[in-house]
Amino acid sequence: MNSGPLCGAVEAGGTKFVCAVGRGPDDLLATERVPTTSPAETLARVVQFFRHAERDHGRLAAIGVASFGPVDLCRASPRYGHITSTPKPGWADTDVLGPLRAAFPAPIGFDTDVNGAALAEGRWGAAREVDAFVYLTVGTGIGGGAVVRGAPVHGLVHPEMGHLRVPHDRRSDPFEGTCPFHGDCLEGLASGPAMAARWGAPAESLPAEHPAWALEAHYLALALHNLVCTLSPGRIVMGGGVMSQAALFPLIRRGLADSMNRYVQTAALSTAVDRYVVPPGLGVRAGVLGALALAIDTTGLP
Amino acid sequence: MNSGPLCGAVEAGGTKFVCAVGRGPDDLLATERVPTTSPAETLARVVQFFRHAERDHGRLAAIGVASFGPVDLCRASPRYGHITSTPKPGWADTDVLGPLRAAFPAPIGFDTDVNGAALAEGRWGAAREVDAFVYLTVGTGIGGGAVVRGAPVHGLVHPEMGHLRVPHDRRSDPFEGTCPFHGDCLEGLASGPAMAARWGAPAESLPAEHPAWALEAHYLALALHNLVCTLSPGRIVMGGGVMSQAALFPLIRRGLADSMNRYVQTAALSTAVDRYVVPPGLGVRAGVLGALALAIDTTGLP
After folding, report:
1. At residue A54, does pLDDT exceed 60?
2. Interface predicted TM-score (ipTM)
3. 3 state SS of B302
């Protein structure tokens, strides 16, 4: 792959900001992890990283920011580039782009962390040459991005796939859900903190044979059913900390095929579901490479 | 609006095939309704309509077919242009395009009826200048199409929004649902036939104050919640026979705003929801004009 112009990338996450500068996914010149503390401190360290990078490697042609959200993506809005209604303490209504805009003349690409990761998976990872696909991450939160014909989808704001409403049978699962906005939406039922609250132990401590995983796969399969019915994605890439439990993928795939019940006749939803619901090709690098993809797209160069 | 090349259009529905020839939405030269009987008889009448149209008006530059489904939209598939797993008697595995291809040299555009209608609403109707939006029809079946940046979305097959899974509290609504594939999916709970089965009377006979409509709006609002979380559409256009009950729109809008619970901060999901969930701008013509849009796009002309 040819190297492009020098770009900066920030994966803005709830626990860390991962920064990088480079010319492509295999040509990163510097990276740094900044812990997510206060907005002012965190963003100052990001600016500092890019200042040092420019000193060492030259002017940045563009910067990409892939942020946790919800964020304001409407360029006409006075809050464009802000994190809006996050429950994360101190971060609601934070102008993420402001300090970067003030410090660097480079154009800045901005989108959600999951839209960025989806873009990176489509360009360099598990969804190459797939015309329309979804990236879903299941961890502290649940989020998803959709890419259609090479660009993330956002008409009104941006997708919030973690907040899908799914069937919840309170007779077999009386757990109320943890989402402060929706109670038993997908994130309320199936995020890492929801699992911990339901079972009284962190998700990563639950062994593969624990009934938690079948229930987790059940809810995730229902969510995938809804993504398939809405977008008909050509592939679904699933990442995030909760998905590191190896037992989950086979359970989710079977659950999705069972739930669709051959209404949509395609091998992807029956015999070939192993190649339809897949882990990220870029692993944990999907986030920062997503920010890099946003930066590259902002340069307007191919 | 300038007129384009002469195009043929077929809205292939479960009760009628609506055929038209024309140069644009305001320039239809001939139209005909063909009742949906057997595939052979119905398609022969469609071919005959276009033969007469060519005799009277000249060669068709393209034909568009917007069909009930599920359909095979994969051009590489031997079943491209077929209706596949429909429960409609006699129509499963029907080659809809075959008779048209055999009779006319014109290129043929093909998509689902709802993707076609969505395309037409985006071009000439209620979703003009909206970058990403959804068209949902609620009638004998429930179906939806999504348009992103001017073209329908279909990665794997095509959306099947009627078969979304939504929360269903069997304590307050013990109705099992009518979908032969999924039981209580959206279509199983909220289509016209589902309403008739639940209440023992046709939907159109139920007065506006009947509790049927609040329950109907509840399920449709949950479905819209999921569409918003997945696609973040810039607008949602709702048509179909069930939606002709005027009491529904206000109930659905309020239900959507309540369900989202201000997690996504935008006027469209609170104070301006009246302009976010809207009826079709093209009324019942959305279907055949969708087929016309597919034909126009197939000519490759602007």
Report:
1. yes
2. 0.93
3. coil
In chain A, which residues have their Cβ closer than 8 Å to the Cβ of B153? Answer: 132, 148, 231-232
State the smallest CA–CA distance between residue A174 and chain B in angstroms.
13
Give kind and range of the element (H or E) at residue B239: strand B236-239
Tokens of B286: 């959305």
Cα dihedral across residues A151, A125, B226, B191: positive or negative: positive
Confidence check: pLDDT of B266 > 90: no
CB B61 within 8 A of CB B7: yes
In chain A, domain spans: 7-116+284-299, 127-279
- Cα radius of gyration (chain A): 19
Pairing of strands A142-148, A151-152: antiparallel
In a mutational test of the A interface, the residue from B88, B129, B148, B278 whose CB has the highest number of chain A CBs within 10 Å is B148
Whether A7-116+284-299 and A127-279 share one fold: the answer is yes
Q: Quick one: fold of A7-116+284-299?
A: Nucleotidyltransferase; domain 5 (3.30.420)
pTM of the predicted protein model: 0.93
Q: Computed from CA positions of residues B168, B236, B260, A197, in that sequence, does the dihedral angle turn out positive or negative? A: positive
Confidence of residue B3 (pLDDT cuts 50, 70, 90): confident
| Contacting A residues, span 225-254, partner chain B, CB-CB under 8 Å | 225-235
Residues 104-133 of B with CB under 8 A from A: 130-133
Using DSSP's 3-state secondary structure scheme, residue B16 falls into strand
Query: What CATH code is assigned to A127-279?
Result: 3.30.420.40
What distances in angstroms separate CA B140 from CA A59, B27, B190, B206, one per listed residue? 60, 30, 10, 16
Residue whose tokens read 């069909």: B67
Q: Give me the DSSP letters along B77-125.
A: STTTTEE-S--STTTTTEESHHHHHHH--S-EEEEEHHHHHHHHHHHHS
- Give one DSSP letter per residue of B126-187, joined into a string: TTTT-SEEEEEEESSSEEEEEEETTEE--SSS---GGG------TTT------BTTTBSSHH
Q: Does B167 touch chain A (CB under 8 A)?
A: yes
B145: closest CA of chain A, how far (Å): 8
- Can you tell me the mean pLDDT for A237-266? 94
pLDDT of residue B164: 98
